[in-house]
Design a protein that fits this description.
It is built from eight helices and 34 strands. The protein has 467 residues and is an alpha+beta fold. The strands form seven sheets. Strands 6-5-7-26-10-13 form a six-stranded mixed β-sheet. Strands 15, 16, 17, 20, 23 and 25 form a six-stranded antiparallel β-sheet that branches.
């Protein structure tokens, strides 16, 4: 590993090469090999010869499964887990609040009810009569802002009384808007009076900003042809320990390209998210969640109207609002039952790896074996008895589907591949083969590439001999 201390990091707060050096010194197996001026070279001794294969002992069965997130509270609180859409063991109703991809990929629901913002979720029907647990406690100020309704009734968050939920119960978290409002563009003098030159306007002749008055308020309309023009908010001060939800009233008028939304952290000097709004003309409210950063941050929200070539792009903007709410408290709440843990006592004995798509694993016990590569449905696992013949073992390894028992494929810790090994009487004399079956398509294609010219050559020579 190389650490280049010549890189200028003065613009990044809380970044110190001395801290990195102290951290590396504390890691077992890491040692400084050489210093070349301001370039440090470290080595890492890895005694793990299992080639990405591990035993996952007593994982939690946890749900819901999710696609994107900034921090995985399921892993932080439960340790190793396997994903379940129903959450047969533990269930986090507000597990993912990620906003950094696009508006069509949001995994949370929030509504504006006038006085309150409401985050909505529900518990699986299969998980009945379970106690709800909170990973963190609300402060006095947060108790004044937040209310929770479960199964149609509001609960007392200030007491230590056990709260039991029933399967299928809905859970709504109410956030008082007036008490949690952090920013509003309607009170932002800079936003209200700015022109459309907050970003580089590469063709000012073909870009414009109009102010349109309607009965519902004033709208700003950005038009672009082969140009970019945008608006921005003044800096928004977000406290480091809280989460924030940004409500944006905006929409597309042409239906071909939505506004480009960029939330820029002025302290760290990077964008928290950079995405496009939906092109759906009927969609005019958009939600974004900002994770706590640990320290106070100052953000600027850029709203860019972008056109390429002769593309005619027109979008409108009415308002931007930001509300503070206890995001980490919401993400850390969960319920679990007595079957939360999957019993597992697998011991990896040896691993033989062929290429990047074939693993032969010797093991004892039963439970979950993980392959620490990104989860893909193309990975398959098969179990079979150990054979004393190396030739037969090799054939079994290459074509395991003819000889082995197919194992249930699961997602481990939200990203890795896992295979559940059921209990059998003879737990010592077993092996698992893990293969990536799309690799066989590549091998088949290469084989055809070699055989096709040979077949053509042989047939050509036969015709010549007949002639």
């Amino acid at each position: 590993m190389y650490v280049d201390k010549s890189v200028d990091t003065t613009s990044v707060l809380a970044f110190d090469y001395k801290d990195i050096e102290q951290t590396l010194k504390s890691v077992v197996g890491v040692s400084l090999e050489k210093r070349l001026g301001r370039l440090d070279i470290y080595s890492f001794e890895n005694d793990d010869k299992n080639s990405f294969v591990d035993a996952v002992n007593n994982p939690t069965v946890l749900g819901p499964d999710y696609g994107y997130d900034d921090s995985d509270y399921g892993y932080l609180q439960q340790g190793d887990y396997i994903s379940s859409s129903e959450g047969d063991g533990a269930y986090y109703p507000f597990r993912s609040m990620f906003s950094g991809k696009d508006q069509d990929s949001l995994e949370y629901v929030v509504e504006d009810l006038g006085k309150y913002l409401v985050f909505r979720s529900s518990f699986p029907d299969e998980m009945d009569a379970n106690e709800i647990r909170f990973g963190t406690k609300l402060t006095e100020d947060e108790l004044d802002v937040v209310r929770v309704k479960i199964g149609g009734s509001f609960i007392d968050l200030s007491s230590d009384k056990v709260i039991v939920v029933s399967g299928g119960d809905k859970i709504d978290v109410y956030v008082n808007k007036s008490k949690s409002l952090n920013y509003s563009s309607l009170n932002d003098v800079f936003f209200l009076n700015q022109s459309n030159d907050s970003c580089s306007v590469n063709n000012p002749v073909l870009s414009s900003l109009e102010f349109v008055q309607r009965s519902s308020g004033e709208y700003r309309v950005l038009t672009s042809v082969d140009s970019d023009n945008c608006l921005r908010t003044s800096m928004m001060n977000f406290s480091g320990g809280s989460g924030y939800v940004v409500k944006l009233k905006a929409g597309s008028m042409t239906g071909n390209r939505g506004l480009n939304i960029n939330l820029y952290d002025n302290i760290v000097g990077k964008s928290e998210w950079d995405t496009y709004l939906s092109t759906d003309k009927e969609r005019n409210i958009h939600w974004f969640v900002v994770e706590p950063m640990g320290e106070d941050s100052y953000y600027t929200l850029y709203l860019k109207n972008r056109s390429e070539g002769v593309e005619y792009v027109k979008n409108w903007i009415k308002s931007v609002e930001a509300y503070e709410f206890p995001l980490l408290w919401m993400k850390s709440m969960y319920i679990e039952n007595d079957q939360a843990k999957l019993k597992s006592n697998v011991l990896i004995k040896n691993v033989s790896k062929t290429g990047t798509s074939n693993y032969l694993v010797g093991f004892s016990g039963n439970g979950v074996v993980s392959l620490n590569q990104s989860y893909d449905e193309g990975w398959m696992g098969y179990r079979f008895k150990v054979n004393s013949s190396k030739l037969i073992t090799k054939i079994q390894t290459i074509m395991p589907w003819f000889f082995g028992e197919k194992l249930n494929h699961v997602k481990v810790n939200g990203w890795a591949n896992g295979f559940v090994i059921p209990e059998v009487e003879d737990v010592e004399n077993r092996q698992v083969v893990i293969v990536f079956w799309p690799q066989y398509l590549e091998w088949g294609g290469l084989l055809l590439l070699v055989l096709t010219p040979l077949v053509i050559l042989i047939r050509s020579r036969r015709r010549q001999s007949l002639n």
